[in-house]
Structure formats: structure tokens, C-alpha cells
Amino acid sequence: MGAQIGRFVARRLGALVVTLLAASLIIYGALHLSPGDPAALLAGGRNPSPETLAAIRAEYHLDDPFWARYWHWLSGVFQWDLGKSMSFGDQVSNLISARLTNTLFLVGYAALLIIFFGLATGIAGALAGKAVNTVITTTTSLLMAVPTFVAAIVLIWLFATKLNWLPVFGSGTGFGDRIEHLTLPALALTASYIAYVSRVIRSALSSELHGEHVETARSRGVRMPSIVRRHVLRNAAAPVLTVSGLTVAGLIAGTVVVEQAFGVSGIGSLLVLAAQKQDFVVVQDIALLMVAAFVVVNTVVDLVSAVLDRRLLRTGV
């Protein structure tokens, strides 16, 4: 079993490295395959002088062969040396570091909401009566059809404009102030995700409840709460963890829309601002960071799922 676990971990880590290298190559290559002079693009779309273009080419090694330029950039990423932004006039690492806390706080807050409400409604839908299940199914179906930006508009109108309960702009400063400022962004970000997780959990639990092992336990007189705790929840843990982990990973990309809508100073809004300014140095670094976060979360979910369900070790899924 130890060798089997080792091979599974090695395969997943190998896939992680290959995926990250491929993503970095695509992201970096997109800039240099786009029409126009890369030096002019790095200058932010302005009308740079020949001296400025020469300085940019020297700074970013644009006169070197492509693979040499790529390796220079990638080795800088490993050292957290992401280059200098032309439009912001600062190191990209400083720009990201100043905003990363807000994004991580928002993603963490949203993840907690998804896990809590997704589990609660999913379990309620599977274990409660037909009427409750119908209400939950209808609600989750509606939420899944609502785009994030529409949810943001509705939440702003209801809780900020009409009821004046929560602030609508900014990130807050202290812990309590951040909770207050990021509640609406987190709700807008998680509405459809909560519905999706709830439906998957309800389906997984319903499938387990109709399994032969549950019927056998009930015929032996085992009480239903004990069956749910010992058999149903345990057997459904792996798919529940998988869908929850993938959903949390998807939050990283969703922050781009939400941060822009609510004026949250995070890396998602920085990505939009950099794209508007044609600051491709910032864009490619943030894009790589988001892809890396998504892939790492997926890998961790795969490893934990394999611990919960050892059948995955044999199949290699």
C-alpha cells in the first residue's frame, strides 16, 4: 500500500509540474506571439521613444532567443522577481503583495460560505421530506442560473441601496471591517457555487441512502442517525470533498468580476486594471499566479480524496 500511495503522489506531483510549465509557456508565449513589437506592448501602449524601447528590450532581454527570454522570466518568478510594471511604476511583486491579502480573505470567506451552506442544504435536501427537497431543488436551480455580475447587482440594490445594511465599496481594514465590506462580494461570488455544491452533495447522499449496506443496517435495527453518521456521510465524503475543492479553486477566477464590481482592492481588480492599461507584465504574472493556485488546489484535493477513498489509488483517477 505504501508503494501504491507513493506512485499515486508521484504521478500527481509530476502532473502538477508539467501543467504549471505548460501554463507558464502558454502565458509567456502569448505576449510574444501577439501582433506588434513586444517592447511597445510592454511600454503600455504609449508612444515610446527609441531610447525607451531600447531600455525595455535590454531589461526584458527581448533581443535574446525566445527560450532564453522564457527561462529568464520563469527563473525570476521562482525568486519572486516578477519584473517592473511600466504603467504603475513599481515592481509587480509589490503590486501583487499589497493586494493579495484582500483576495485571499475574500476567497477564504466565500469558501466557508460555500462549504457551510452547501453542506447544510445538501444534507437537508437528502434527509428531509419531499416538500423541503422540492424547495431546495427549486432554489438551487434558480441560483445556478444567475451569473455572478447579476447576483452582484441584486445584492447591491437590496442590501446596500434599499436596506442600507452593508457597505458596497472597498475592502475594509481590520478583521471586523473586512467581514462587513466583503460580505456582499462573498455572497455574489458564492451564490451559484453554493447551489452547485448543494445539488452534488444531495445527489451523493441520496445515492448512499438507497445503498444495500444502508438497507442491511436498517433491517438490523440500527438507528437512522447512526447509519447516516457511520455509513452515508463517510462513504460520500470523497465526492463531496472533490466537488467542494474544485469549487473553491474556481473562486480564484471568479474574484476578477466580483472585485471589480465592489471596488475590492485585490489581484482580480488589478488584473482588469492592468489589462486596460495594456500592462502585459502584470497581466502575465497574475495569470500565472491564478493558474498555479487553481492547479495546486486541485492536486491537494486529489491527494486528500485518495486518502479518503483508496480505490482511487488503484484506478489512478
UniProtKB/TrEMBL annotation:
<keyword id="KW-1133">Transmembrane helix</keyword>
<feature type="transmembrane region" description="Helical">
    <location>
        <begin position="12"/>
        <end position="31"/>
    </location>
</feature>
<keyword id="KW-1003">Cell membrane</keyword>
<dbReference type="InterPro" id="IPR000515">
    <property type="entry name" value="MetI-like"/>
</dbReference>
<comment type="similarity">
    <text>Belongs to the binding-protein-dependent transport system permease family.</text>
</comment>
<keyword id="KW-0812">Transmembrane</keyword>
<dbReference type="InterPro" id="IPR035906">
    <property type="entry name" value="MetI-like_sf"/>
</dbReference>
<feature type="transmembrane region" description="Helical">
    <location>
        <begin position="179"/>
        <end position="197"/>
    </location>
</feature>
<keyword id="KW-0813">Transport</keyword>
<feature type="transmembrane region" description="Helical">
    <location>
        <begin position="232"/>
        <end position="252"/>
    </location>
</feature>
<feature type="transmembrane region" description="Helical">
    <location>
        <begin position="140"/>
        <end position="159"/>
    </location>
</feature>
<keyword id="KW-0472">Membrane</keyword>
<feature type="domain" description="ABC transmembrane type-1">
    <location>
        <begin position="100"/>
        <end position="301"/>
    </location>
</feature>
<protein>
    <submittedName>
        <fullName>ABC transporter permease</fullName>
    </submittedName>
</protein>
<feature type="transmembrane region" description="Helical">
    <location>
        <begin position="287"/>
        <end position="308"/>
    </location>
</feature>
<dbReference type="Pfam" id="PF19300">
    <property type="entry name" value="BPD_transp_1_N"/>
</dbReference>
<feature type="transmembrane region" description="Helical">
    <location>
        <begin position="104"/>
        <end position="128"/>
    </location>
</feature>
<dbReference type="InterPro" id="IPR045621">
    <property type="entry name" value="BPD_transp_1_N"/>
</dbReference>
<dbReference type="Pfam" id="PF00528">
    <property type="entry name" value="BPD_transp_1"/>
</dbReference>
